[in-house]
Specification:
Strand content: 25-35%
Enzyme class: transferase
Keywords: ATP-binding, FAD, Flavoprotein, FMN, Kinase, Nucleotide-binding, Nucleotidyltransferase, Transferase
Structural class: alpha/beta
CATH topology of the largest domain: Rossmann fold
Helix content: 10-25%
Shape: elongated
Strand order of the largest sheet: 1-4-3-2-5-8
Order of helices and strands: EHEHEHEHHEEEHEEEHHEEEEEEH
Number of domains: 2
EC number: 2.7.7.2
Catalytic activity: FMN + ATP + H(+) = FAD + diphosphate
CATH architecture of the largest domain: 3-Layer(aba) Sandwich
Number of strands: 16
Radius of gyration: 21 Å
GO molecular function: ATP binding; FMN adenylyltransferase activity; riboflavin kinase activity
Length: about 290
């Protein structure tokens, strides 16, 4: 997979050198089961048409630039990890667009002309709620109009699990209330972080990208994995604004060396009865209303 960073305004060089593709559109934080449905739909179309499979995402979440609603600056999958997942799913080209105030002002038709048709898209696949262009005036009902017949459009319908819409918002809600054990049914795997392990015996320090979305403070059962090592242990999250480092105590004396490429898997929240009303499994918004 090749990754192509794009800054606005997009250059003619990038457009002229883009390969014919089927383009999957979305921010794709978490690359959950709904996102995977979009990528696999695009992959099938690309295979049928003999085209490259491309995905477009943004380097920044739009909420960090557009002052509307909650601002998202922490991610379920930071960009470097998101790219790895895309590659595993068979994406050939990853376009990473800088989302700036200038880009946010681009009208929907211009966005299509420059960033979709301009990148040689022959077919576009996105979720039913995808929006684009100034004030999100472009959506999946507008996209076939803006395409002007230059490319095909496929809209992927809402994916539900247990009567819940599978979404990044849902995943963040589960993580922020400590319900990490529920992540698997929407993500297709446990919530994980990539990082570095240093220590010996039963205790280690796990260092990771501080832009990861952290679970609410409390104690958690976790699994640390690497090519030559796997062990269960416990860690305490003291703050969601953690500087990218956790101390893990393993249940057995098993760590024999440092590992530069390791995965921290969040298994379960361990009840901390001293938290009283601020129990991690509770919805903090409801707790605040009742206190």
């Amino acid at each position: 997979m090749i990754t192509i960073p794009i800054k606005h305004p997009i250059t003619q060089y990038i457009q002229e050198n883009s390969q014919s593709c089927v383009m999957a559109l979305g921010f794709f934080d978490g690359v959950h089961l709904g996102h995977q449905k979009i990528i696999r739909t695009a992959k099938k179309i690309a295979k049928d048409k003999g085209l490259k499979l491309a995905a477009m995402t943004f380097a920044q979440h739009p909420s960090s630039v557009i002052p509307k609603g909650p601002t998202i600056t922490k991610f379920i999958t930071p960009l470097s990890e998101k790219a790895k997942v895309f590659e595993q799913l068979g994406v050939d080209i990853l376009y990473v667009v800088d989302f700036t105030k200038e880009l946010a002002k681009v009208p929907h038709q211009q966005f299509v002309d420059q960033y979709i048709y301009g990148l040689n898209s022959k077919h576009v696949v996105a979720g039913f709620d995808y929006k684009y262009g100034f004030k999100g005036k472009g959506d999946m009902s507008q996209l076939p109009i803006d395409s002007k017949g230059r490319f095909g459009v496929t809209t992927v319908s809402k994916l539900e699990q247990h009567e819940q819409k599978v979404s990044s918002t849902l995943l963040r809600a589960l993580i922020s209330t400590g319900r990490v054990e529920e992540i698997y049914q929407y993500l297709g795997k446990s919530y994980e972080m990539r990082g570095e392990v240093k220590g010996k015996g039963r205790t280690c320090t796990f260092s990771f990208d501080p832009s990861y979305y952290m679970p609410i403070p409390g104690h958690y059962e976790v699994t640390v994995k690497s090519n030559l090592f796997q062990a269960k242990g416990m860690c305490e999250v003291k703050s969601i604004h953690h500087p990218g480092e956790l101390t893990i105590t393993f249940f057995e004396d098993t760590l024999f060396k440092d590992f530069e490429n390791a995965t921290l898997q969040w298994n379960n929240f361990i009840a901390d009865f001293e938290m009283d009303a601020l129990h991690a499994q509770g919805d903090l918004r409801e707790l605040e209303m009742s206190m």
